[in-house]
Amino acid sequence: MSMFSIFSVSGSAVSAQSQRLNVVASNLANVDAVAGPDGQAYKARQVVFQTTPLGAEAASGVRVSAINENQTPGRKVLDPNHPLADEQGYVTHSNVNAVDEMVNMISASRSYQNNVEVMNTAKSLLLKTLQMGQ
Length: 134
Hints:
By secondary structure, the protein is an alpha+beta fold. Helices cover 46% and strands 19% of the residues. The protein has one domain (3-33, 45-71, 96-132). A hairpin with a 6-residue loop joins β1 and β2. α1 (3-29) packs antiparallel against α2.
């Protein structure tokens, strides 16, 4: 693997973690949502990563292969006066767990930062190599 493929590997990871952060942001924005555009309660989404080969070299990167909805039922709150209440008077809220999403956000943010640091280190090593040749 050449030094230049490090940028491809880390770049693909940065892109994937960026998508993960966007999904987490969407989940957190809908943590208290009662109904989405389709009239149903918002369902938390999770990113699924997949290894992907990068060119003819032995390097592999990562990409988002799917964004799945969590099928766990949302919490029900008794509020018979709410316009979206069911026949028994319960309103179904989203199934987003704010604590889980914050942990997911911290993990994605750290992964993003680590991959940026890998690219910065590779850049500085390449610059040092060029300076040695002068």
